[in-house]
Amino acid sequence: MRYYIHTHYSQCLERDMNIRVYGHYGRTFLVFPCQDGQSDDYDKNGMIEFFAPLIEEGKMKLICVDAIDHESFSNQFNSYEHRAYMQEQYYYYIINEVMPFIYKENGGFTLPVVTGCSMGASQAAIMFFRRPDLFSGILALSGCYDMSYFWNWWTNEHVYNNSPALFLQNMDINHHYINLYNQKKMVFVVGQGNYEYFVDWSFYKLQNAINRLGIKATMDVWGKDVDHHWYWWKKQYTYFLPQFLE
Question: Biggest alpha carbon distance in the chain?
Fold first, then answer.
């Protein structure tokens, strides 16, 4: 399997960041780690080994990025304003620095699918719903989509703009993004087992928002035995991934 680490200095975040690339060809997936994880998150949790046959067959390529959750969502020491600002800077880092890297890596303007589990799904949804022109689809597993939860329900412009369940519920039904959303493949999944209660409420909030707008997404609720865990995320990838590889 082709694999390398690209380390670069981020102007948006003012630090070195790592991007891990797995594979030569195939459908490209921009992968966000779970909360407080980094670009090696999928490797550490067995997902690279799990995806290895598809990667080696040239059916998919993974672009795994670092995160800065310890300065935004998980940060309990800095001000709410600073934490929200850091998440907004992370958004600009992905859009202005990671996306050009992906185009260069793929040798052209190829739209990736954006994906992740838990906080990774949250980041995937933020990027997708704010910039649907840059992605071909989204596969989000067990994400939280109202990020004011991490600010004890406090919000400002940055928190709002990084909360798809909030800004979509207020989006004009004639917004030009709606037609763009409906040209993409969108799958959101949540279970009803252990620790999914931390995120399931936001899943339904997002579902109500996109239903109001007429957005055609798959919103799939799995059973009461389905926990917030890699074991189940692997099963969900197994079930939904073929739809993105067609």
Answer: 47
Token pair for 203: 């899943």
Distances (CA, A) of 76 to 85, 235, 244: 14, 33, 37
The dihedrals phi and psi of 89, each to the nearest 5 degrees, come to -65, -35
Task: Tell me what the pLDDT averaged over the chain comes to.
Answer: 97
Yes or no: say if 116 and 31 are a contact pair by the CB < 8 Å rule.
Answer: yes
User: What percent of the chain has pLDDT above 70?
Assistant: 100
Secondary structure of 135-169 as H, E, C letters = CCEEEEECCCCCHHHHHCCCCCHHHHHCCHHHHHH
Give the architecture (CATH level 2) of 3-245. Answer: 3-Layer(aba) Sandwich (3.40)
Rounded Cα distance between 70 and 29, Å, is 24
C-alpha R_g of the chain? 17
Domains in the chain: boundaries: 3-245
Q: Using CA of residue 143, residue 178, residue 215, residue 246, what is the dihedral sign?
A: negative
Whether 147 and 203 have beta carbons less than 8 Å apart is answered as no
Q: Is 16 exposed, middle or buried (0-12, 13-18, 19+ CB in 10 A)?
A: exposed
The arrangement of strands across the sheet holding 113-117 comes to: 3-10, 15-22, 60-65, 27-32, 113-117, 137-141, 185-190, 218-221
Closest by CA position to 105, among listed 47, 33, 25: 25
Give pTM, 2 decimals.
0.97
